[in-house]
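Reminder: ligand-aware prediction takes two inputs, not one.
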Amino acid sequence: MGMKSDIKLIDKKGLRLDGRKPDELRPIKIEAGVLKRADGSAYLEWGKNKVLAAVYGPREAHPRHLQDSSKAIVQCRYNMAPFSVSDRKRPGPDRRSVEISKIISEALENVVMTELFPRSSIDVFIEVLEANAGTRCAGLTAASVALADAGVPMRDLVVACAAGKIEDTVVLDLGKEEDNFGQADVPLAIVPRTGELVLLQMDGDLKQEELFKAMEMAMNASMQIYEIQKDALRRRYAVVAEEEKDEIDSAQEEAKT
Ligand code: CDP
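Here is what comes back for the chain with cytidine-5'-diphosphate:
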């Protein structure tokens, strides 16, 4: 954010470097249930970001001093693969990934019915395979689909999206160059059913009216992303139902012989 460059981020026609209009999202694809050994999983592509989320649990929280006798804890680990960025990233946690893990855990705790699973832990692993700005939003959006895929009881999904400012214009969903050379980035996450805000951060500077405009843009786009999440889950359940039907059919066949 705020790096100097001669690159023109918006052209004369009002279009951005990748041809998007100010209020246009990058293309988003989500697939649920991609990992066999996880209790729930999701793979998400958001522009050039590629993110995998895996969920394990609810299971007994370890070490024991972490256990809460009144509810489950949601533990998230956000990790960027060394090959996910053009300069190789040093493996292992750093200040940025610890912060992102914390804000994602807290956002998810708002929707997971933690009170149903005392002393348990619900573990969410987010692996960023390719990063191109907006990975915390991509990771959180994928994680909530993975939680639903795991059958973890939730009040709703969480959807995340960012908006910001480039060339004095408020725009949706900043890409890599826009993130580097832009003026502000505001990632947020909402619970669509209630409109609750469960994550709000800001990098850079915005006037009050610009902040409100950016938030409104990101919230409206979140409703589009919510549909993509639900669609991924519907497709997943259709596959699961088909597999179960096949199992019942073959069991009946076996019983006959
Ligand atoms: O990814 P997100 O926008 O949520 O977080 P950020 O801290 O604003 O990072 C913006 C982008 O910078 C990331 O998506 C990566 O593309 C890039 N980045 C990087 O190249 N190397 C890092 N160690 C961290 C981030």
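The chain has a mean pLDDT of 97. Residues 208-256 form the longest helix (49 residues). We will return to this case in the review session.
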